[in-house]
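Quarterly update from the structural biology core.
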Amino acid sequence: MSDASSLNDLSLLGRSEHRLPASPDEARLETFPNRNPGRHYTIHLSQPDFASLCPVTGQPDAAHIEILYIPGDRCVETKSLKFYLASFRNHALFNEAIVNRILDDLVTACAPLQALVRGRFAARGGIQLTCEARHPHVDQLLQWPQSLSRPS
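Predicted structure, tokenized:
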């Protein structure tokens, strides 16, 4: 399959789309074929200005979302990821649920061999919350490199 034909299913890449999805349910994580499926390599994606709403107060929450994964047969297209993450901006969900939802949606979209999602949420009431969720559900697999593990 040529590179051009493998990109035909992508609806956002290379287009001047400006309408963000209203919610994560409306958003679509697009994928493309992994061009190195026999090699286990990591992809690190970082969204330092993630926004959502507190489901209790309706106040905005801010976070730094990081995704680290080893792709299987498919990779996530980054423009669709940007739109997907932006779709949480008016969505009320607890911080832990957000991190787990992102992981679940990533696994559904591209079936990575391993994935780790971390959300470092801004302090509220003097407490800063960091949540991590991993796929598959076993210990001692994918680890954050030391250069990425320090809180920002």
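DSSP finds four helices and six strands in the chain.
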